[in-house]
Design goal:
By secondary structure, the protein is of the alpha/beta class. 32% of the residues lie in helices and 30% in strands. A 7-stranded mixed beta sheet has the order 3-2-1-4-5-9-8, with helices on both faces.
Length: 203
Amino acid sequence: MSTTNKNHWENVYETKTPEQVSWTQEVPQTSLDFIRWFGLDKTASIIDVGGGDSKLVDFLLEGGYENITVLDISEKALERAKLRLGDKAQKVNWIACDITEFQPTTSYDLWHDRAAFHFLTTDEQISKYTSIASQFVNGYLAIGTFSTNGPLKCSGLEIKQYDEKSMFAQFENSFEKLRCITEDHTTPFNTTQNFLFCSFKKK
């Protein structure tokens, strides 16, 4: 991943508005539903992996969550989110890092990832990701990827599709599966992408 992918994503966030990228959501409802379903305390440690300039952080802050980290490979994406949030951005821990090179200094009660994991297409990348999650998550995972009925590429990059069985296989050593759902995401340009969302609890 590293430099090549970082350059790719910096360019995306430098040249495209939220209305010009497929993943934009005005309200990340499915993610919010999972998070509320977990019943976490407002002081729970939450990380949004690949959060970019997603509005999930806005809704978490509005919901009173106090310990939020947003990680993304693109510094420009994080800067856009900070600019949008204004003074509220100071309440968030921002990390610009490739997830496969992330070295956490704390553990997390919730690890949320919508549409970052599916960009990891090699066994080595996937293994690094799942190893970090298994070591530093002591509560829940909520992961959204393209399903086997979804696209094969995103932002010009190859992705890895998942169904419930293949998703569970990646995390079964350290987590128990709670539930999975599929949903259609309507992009800002009115195309449809089918997602799989799965939730897990640390064993």
